[in-house]
Amino acid sequence: MKVLSVASELYPLIKTGGLADVAGALPGALAPEGVEIRSLIPGYRPVMAALKKAESAAEFEDLFGGPARLLAARVGALDLFVLDAPHLFVRDGGPYGGVDGRDFPDNALRFAALGKVGALIGQGAVPGFVPQVVHAHDWQAGLTAAYLHYSEAPRPGSVITVHNLAFQGQFPAATFGQLGLPPQAFSIEGVEYYGGVGFLKAGLQLSDHITTVSPTYALEIQTSHAGMGLDGLLRARAGELSGILNGIDTQVWNPETDKLVAARYSAKSLAGRAVNKKALQDRFGLERDDKKFLVGVVSRLSWQKGLDLLLQCLPTFEACDAQLAMLVSGDPGLEAAFQEATQTYAGRVGAYFGYEEKLAHLVQAGADAILVPSRFEPCGLTQLCALRYGAPPIVARVGGLADTVVDANEMAVQAGCATGLQFSPVSSEALSGAVRRGAHLFQQKKIWKKIQANGMKADVSWTFPAKHYAEIYAAVAAAQRTAA
């Protein structure tokens, strides 16, 4: 089966979040299932720089304001289509905004172009690769389904994955006239959304199947509390909505072979964790003491991630004689507050503002536990890495965090199946309680080692999710053949 993946990010070429990790991992994960995936991504500067050899697959005289080419290339294990449209994608800044942090004003046209070309490939624009399914990711690829739906040409099956419903791609109604869609598309059954144009809404409305990245999140987004204005549509399409947990690359995230940590270790021998803990304490200016409960955080600083609640809990760390090592970046106000905390709680709280891959691995390998206090979390990858590295996650009971961590309540501890700690509601009081509970369990070495061992045995790979995706692709392709 041939599948075209349409995404605005793709690890390791361009990444701002988990979308890139998933889009980058699925091709390799699905190959054993007999699925051949090619990925369509924009030709940003870093992407173009990574192309050592590329062939022209199609040309466009005027693609939303300028000429463009579709390049076919291979980078590492990834088979790519790259949309080489310099007027849209070759810019200073990130994939979505400039160096000033503001969104590019023409993002609607930039990602309409991505969706348009994705639809054209789906309808045979590249004779050597005609997919049975087009898989769009998030709002940036949401119009792919619309261009397929409103074309008179035969089309493949279509799937859209919601990685985070908070990002919807909403634009003014005036944008519609620039998209090249027929007038009837501007309706509630099409791309219209609260009087404007909704890219994600279009994908959810017009794709054959919808997936999101955990079963619990799939249920949450059908409620008014977490549906962010789209819950009615999602409830109406509940029969075509699946929650599939993400996985992680277990070759990249493997404490037995990881070259980025101070010492390697395995579930059978955790001695290397003590070496990594000392290295982590040194790196973050924390008191070197193996007996202290060291909690790690690797996260964006944002309201979603709940780290403002952590600020209120810092006295708890002092009361529990615990430590905190944070690899974070994002909201300037929160950065300033945590910077001040490193002075107030010197030797107990340390922070690095930014992102460094090597340091992310060291936090996982050296922290006694990893904290993820998100207010909502579609899936989360940090806690999966934490399980793999023997750092029991302390998580809010939401979305994929609830699906992937078995709480160390009394019954789970007695049954020997706990892998971490959950807390609810998502409040500073509940978070403080979870930290205290984690510190208490950490002192019970036999129980803590069992929790670590359980987590390290958990299957956090793409093996099961890949099978689920393959089943959905097959069903969607079969349904489209029948409809045709």
Structure description:
Pfam families: Glyco_transf_5, Glycos_transf_1. ADP-alpha-D-glucose binds at residue 15. The chain folds into 2 domains: 2-247 and 463-483, Rossmann fold (3-Layer(aba) Sandwich); 271-457, 3-Layer(aba) Sandwich (Rossmann fold). By secondary structure, it is an alpha/beta fold. The relative contact order is 0.10. The chain has 19 helices and 18 strands. The chain is 38% helix and 19% strand. The longest helix is centred in the last third of the chain and has 21 residues, at 463-483. The radius of gyration is 23 Å and the shape is elongated. The strands form 3 sheets. Strands 3-4-5-2-1-6-7-11-12 form a 9-stranded mixed β-sheet, sandwiched between helices. α4 packs across α5. It has helices spanning 18-30, 45-50, 86-89, 107-122, 143-149, 199-206, 215-220, 231-236, 271-283, 307-312, 314-319, 332-344, 357-366, 382-388, 399-404, 410-415, 428-443, 445-457, 463-483, and strands spanning 2-6, 36-42, 54-60, 68-75, 78-84, 133-137, 157-162, 170-171, 192-193, 196-198, 209-212, 241-243, 293-301, 322-330, 349-353, 369-372, 393-396, 421-423.
